[in-house]
Amino acid sequence: MATRPLPFPAPALTDPDPVPALRRGDPDALGALYHHHAPALLLLARRLLGSAAEAEDLVQDLFVGLPEALANYQERGRLGPWLRTVATRMALMRLRSRRTRGEVTLGTTPLPAAPATEPADRMTLTTILARLPEEQRVVVLLRTIEGYSHAEVAELLGLRRNTVEVRYHRALERLRDLLEAP
Amino acid sequence: MTDHSDTEARLRALADQEPRPRTSNAVLHGILARRAAGERITLPAAPPRRFPVWLFAGAAAAVLVTLVVTRAGREPRQAAAPRTATPDTTLQVTEMGGFFLPEPLLAQATAEPRYERVPASGGERLRPGQWFYTSPMRDRPYLPGDTAYGVAIERSTWDGHPAWLTLGGRLLPSGKVVWGQDSLWLTSDSLRPLREVKRLGENGRVEKTYRDGEVLIGETVNGYTSWRNRPIVDPNRNPAEGVPVHWYQFVATIQSGGLSLGWRRSLEMPFIVRQGPGWGYFLDMEVVRAETVTVPAGRFECWKVVLGREDQGSALWVDQESGWIVARSSFWGGRERYRQELVRGEDL
Fold first, then answer.
1. What pLDDT was estimated at residue A167?
2. Of B169, B180, B188, whose CA–CA distance to B346 is shortest?
3. Which chain B residue lies closest to A45 (C-alpha atoms)?
4. How far is CA B167 from the centre of its chain?
5. Residue B1: what pLDDT?
6. What is the CA radius of gyration of chain A?
7. Which of A1, B130, B247, B285 gives the lowest tally of CB atoms within 10 Å of its CB?
8. B275: distance to nearest CA of chain A, Å?
9. Min Cα–Cα distance to chain B from A120, Å
10. DSSP result, chain A
11. Closest residue of chain B to A65, computed from CA coordinates
12. Phi and psi dihedrals of B41, rounded to 5?
């Protein structure tokens, strides 16, 4: 199946309202949106899933399904946050699915945790969060980085608010120790 | 409540400083090609719906199906499968299943074999039966009346060809077995997956049908199903990934007999396990001693098979007479982390 060659460099996201073109599945609009937003989405997915390969899969699936998902999109000028919300929900679904199956998903590339001897100032957020259990990592990401409230995190994860607060508190205690380690 | 504002601020600063991954025109080509091929994916644009517990309880009571397992006279189960499927094609998937938590065992995988290399056994060595084990997550000894978790392995057919069928189930305190939604069909000789159905969350399921270099995936969540075709080998990923694999190849090897004191083999597992900077392909196993073990299913004279080290690794106890895996435990950090014991076993 032939595809048109894509322009290089990628077209800038200049359309103030790309949504109508995206809804039509316009390749140029989709491409511009991808190059503009995918880096942040990849980073978000990588942090949540703990795997670069799974993050790539997720972001690809997001853009494949995007035109149809925009059918009910109403917020003007807030496409970026909306995309992050969708990516977050997709990642949480994958994490739930992984836990339900009780399996190790082979073939993914788990992110290395920061070595115990690595100074805190050379760690990235991703590597330092990799040292947390998954349940704490997800709560910290959603609360501190993505800006969800405890109540919103609880709803996203299907937990009681108190559970979220406890996990968050424990995670931040541990992260404080890691960041202050010599 | 402790003030975490400093830590939060540092985390946000780290988030801002972290370099973003780069995008790729090749990946974008792939996205556009999938759409041009008609692939559509339903995205979770709305929060997941949450149903009251009483609705689930009522539905479960209305639709509960219990299979009473009998030893003889059972017809092979047949999967509804596309007629175009070809069994035993060179499929490249990675998948895990089975009634053990495989992760602790896989943590022992090595990149180079330590002992004589042996290939993982194929379907000719798998044995039909059903085995139920104690939950690995319990924090107290098993008590009669606890639910046990296990699998049935049966001869079956798929698309008119011989196949193995595995089903996940629970042994209830009443002695009845409830079979869940998890089903897996494997080729009869090489134990490669043909079709799989698994529960997805509380009210979803995923179905995968493997055929000629691609997998058809149907995901149903909250009543909505999305379908997509995926090539089984994704060129954007590690080309070594996606090697033909199934966990039951390991089971077939262990249960096929031939163990003795001092037996040492490096089981060549055709899948990839990430181990630090490298990849593990082999499970180095050694029969270290004969042991008598008592588990809920009874008392067995076993071979103790160790993967890794006894204090930091995994161990299996394999019944010398039947070849059943009677118990399994994994140790690391100075203590036992997982342990599963046979509650009931039956050859079919």
1. 93
2. B169
3. B21
4. 11
5. 56
6. 18
7. A1
8. 9
9. 10
10. ---PPPPSSPPP---S--HHHHHTT-HHHHHHHHHHHHHHHHHHHHHHHSBHHHHHHHHHHHHHHHHHHGGG---TT-HHHHHHHHHHHHHHHHHHHHHHHT---TT--BPPPPPTTS-GGG--HHHHHTTS-HHHHHHHIIIIIS---HHHHHHHHT--HHHHHHHHHHHHHHHHHHHH--
11. B41
12. -125, 135
Most confident of A13-17, B15-19, B306-310: B15-19
Minimal Cβ distance to A145: which of B12, B48, B96 = B12
| Tokens found for residue B167 | 């089903």
Helix (H) or strand (E) holding B33: helix B25-36
Distance set, CA B237 to CA A57, A101, A105, B197, B213 (Å):
10, 23, 14, 25, 16
Confidence of residue B321 (pLDDT cuts 50, 70, 90): confident
Instruction: Express each pLDDT in B145-164 by its tens digit.
Output: 777 778 888 888 887 778 88
Alpha carbon distance B243, B229 (integer Å): 19
Cα–Cα distance between A62 and A93 in angstroms, integer?
13
Q: Quick check: A60 and B27 CB within 8 A?
A: yes
User: Token digits for B240?
Assistant: 């070594």
Nearest to A1 among B36, B106, B242 (CB): B36
Select from B301, B312, B295 the least CA-distant residue to B261: B301
Strand bridging mode B148-158 / B78-79: parallel
Supply the pTM of this predicted model.
0.47
Which residues are B318's β-sheet partners? B303, B325
Selected residue of A72, A104, A122 to mutate for chain B interface (largest B Cβ count, 10 A): A104
Flag if A69 and B45 touch (Cβ within 8 Å): yes
B71 has a pLDDT exceeding 70: no
Nearest neighbour of B11 by CB, restricted to A102, A106, A145: A145
Give chain A positions within 8 Å (CB) of B15.
Answer: 125, 145
The C-alpha angle A149, A153, A157, rounded to 5 degrees, equals: 175
Rounded Cα distance between A20 and B133, Å, is 55
- How high is the pLDDT of residue B195? 83
Q: How far is B262 from chain A (nearest CA, A)?
A: 30
- Match 């539905």 to its residue by tokens: B59
DSSP labels, B80-130: ---TT--TT---------SSS-HHHHHTT-BSS-SS-EEEPP-GGG---EE
Q: Contact A68/B221, CB-based, under 8 Å?
A: no
Intervals of chain A under pLDDT 70: 1-16, 72, 75-77, 99-122, 182
Mean pLDDT of B258-282: 67
CA atoms within 13 A on the CB side of B181: 15
Name the residue among A30, A112, A124 with its Cβ closest to that of B18: A124
Instruction: Report the run of H or E that residue B336 belongs to, with start and end.
Output: strand B335-347
